[in-house]
Amino acid sequence: MIPLSAPSMKTDHWQQQLAGAFNCVEDLLSFLDLKACQEPGMAAADNDFSIRVTHFFASLMEKGNIDDPLLRQVLPLGAEMENTPGFSTDPLSDQSAHTGYGMLHKYHGRVLLITTGACAINCRYCFRRHFPYADNQVTPSQWQSLVGQLHRDRTVSEVILSGGDPLSLANGRLHTLIEDLQDIPHLRRLRIHSRLPVVLPDRLDSTLLDILADCRLSASLVLHINHPREISTELTQALLPLRHLGIPLLNQAVLLKGINDRAHIQIALSEELFEAGILPYYLHQLDLVRGAAHFAVDDQEAAALYTLMQARLPGYLLPRLVREIPGAQSKTTLPVSQNR
Ligand SMILES: *Cc1c(COP(=O)(O)O)cnc(C)c1O
Ligand code: SF4
């Protein structure tokens, strides 16, 4: 007889890793042999939006390198405390929709559901940094009301589970959410937006795979990978069963100054994504969120970089270079000159 506790112990494995994530600047820097690099400004930035990074993601960083592109995405810096004009706490003007939990319906046919505010990692450039109650989950009654709205709105054919990170939810919770969604007859597609497999490949456990395999809706997974070094062997291995299930794997990246704003890095990213079975989908211009101004790449530089990518990559490995403009009917493609 299989002991009843077996599946939940398996689930616990990634949850334990999540619970043991670095949440102190000093610990991360000493793990990376960078203790001498601690600066006073880090404490203020950490206080504003606390550091969080899994041990797995930290293990992909180069020891002794304060400019490591993976470290730079998570390390609080004094520069975040500068108040740059044009950078706000609510760059997408949807604070009202985010502070409650629920549904963002901006584009035709698809809705984005904020299932949880929790993430496995705190990316310094994230718009979430200014939202309160960041670790809360949608409550059962809020969920029932969302499901009711979706039953009534027959124009919606795709649901995107987002957050926070939807894969930070326990499998049991996810299973319930997905079962409720697949009972809505006019829904056809289920999309999951997640960075969790990148920072914790063990999250793609067999229970989650079973949930996705059993789902009536056509599922896809959109990962968030910014730099080729984030594509670990562990991630590639963990994605294999999803590929066998025929679940399309896509990637969205954020264009970040000093991290991935060089053409050779973007080209390597696209090529290595493809080798891991992932297609590049979007390359996002940064949301103008306060505290992230030092990551911004201006539009002209972004367009020049994109032109170089276009000249080197096959069309199917070119992500769409986009920005999110409040009120637009879709992501907005940046104008890029084709003839160079
Ligand atoms: C980005 C986003 C989507 C997804 O857009 P696609 O172009 O379909 O990938 C959906 N809803 C909201 C609110 C979004 O911000
Ligand atoms: S994983 Fe995504 S939602 Fe979470 S902190 Fe990073 S950018 Fe924000």
From TrEMBL:
Annotated binding of [4Fe-4S] cluster, by residue: 119, 123, 126
InterPro entries: Aldolase_TIM, EpmB, Lys_aminomutase/Glu_NH3_mut, rSAM, rSAM_sf
The Radical SAM core domain, residue ranges: 105-328
Catalysed reaction, written as an equation: L-lysine = D-beta-lysine
Family the entry assigns: Belongs to the radical SAM superfamily. KamA family.
UniProt-recorded name of the protein: L-lysine 2,3-aminomutase
CDD domains per record: Radical_SAM
TM stretches of this protein: none
A molecular function GO annotation: metal ion binding
Residue positions, PTM N6-(pyridoxal phosphate)lysine: 331
Keyword Heme tagged: no
Keyword list, A-Z: 4Fe-4S, Iron, Iron-sulfur, Isomerase, Metal-binding, Pyridoxal phosphate, S-adenosyl-L-methionine
Top-level division of the source organism's lineage: Bacteria
Cofactor(s) needed: pyridoxal 5'-phosphate; [4Fe-4S] cluster
Entry keyword annotation includes Isomerase: yes
Pfam family, one: Radical_SAM
